[in-house]
């Protein structure tokens, strides 16, 4: 999975500010950020145009590609293709397994967060 940590962190940070009712700092010199601290000292918020749904979809597609690549290499090795080594098969299988485990953990965190949000009083 090719998720950039800084981008994800800055998106979570901006969502947190929006959820607390604070306005996002502007890029001007007189912008005020969290707790009255100038926005320049807080740091820049990522202005990327990709949204969370696109990023999640891309990550899931990447996991799917890793799974299918590992399956193809396994099949080729089992059929006796000499261009595929056992090491390549094991590495592809491990990559796909790790990616799937990470995806399951992310899903579990989303479900946990959803349940927590739904149990909040309105």
From TrEMBL:
Gene: fliE
InterPro entries: FliE
KW Aminoacyl-tRNA synthetase (keyword) present: no
Protein name from the UniProt record: Flagellar hook-basal body complex protein FliE
Pfam families per record: FliE (PF02049)
Keywords recorded for this protein, A-Z: Bacterial flagellum, Cell projection, Cilium, Flagellum
Similarity remark: Belongs to the FliE family.
Transmembrane segments: none
Subcellular location: Bacterial flagellum basal body
Highest taxon in the source lineage: Bacteria
Entry keyword Cell membrane: no
């Amino acid at each position: 999975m090719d998720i950039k940590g800084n981008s994800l962190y800055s998106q979570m940070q901006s969502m947190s500010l929006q959820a607390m009712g604070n306005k996002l700092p502007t890029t001007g010199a007189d912008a005020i950020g969290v707790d009255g601290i100038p926005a320049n000292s807080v740091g820049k918020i990522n202005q990327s145009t990709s949204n969370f749904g696109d990023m999640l979809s891309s990550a899931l597609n990447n996991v799917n590609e890793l799974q299918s690549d590992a399956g193809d290499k396994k099949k080729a090795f089992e059929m006796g293709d000499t261009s595929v080594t056992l090491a390549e098969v094991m590495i592809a299988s491990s990559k796909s397994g790790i990616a799937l485990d990470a995806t399951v953990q992310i899903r579990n965190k989303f479900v946990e967060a959803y349940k927590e949000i739904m149990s909040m009083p309105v």
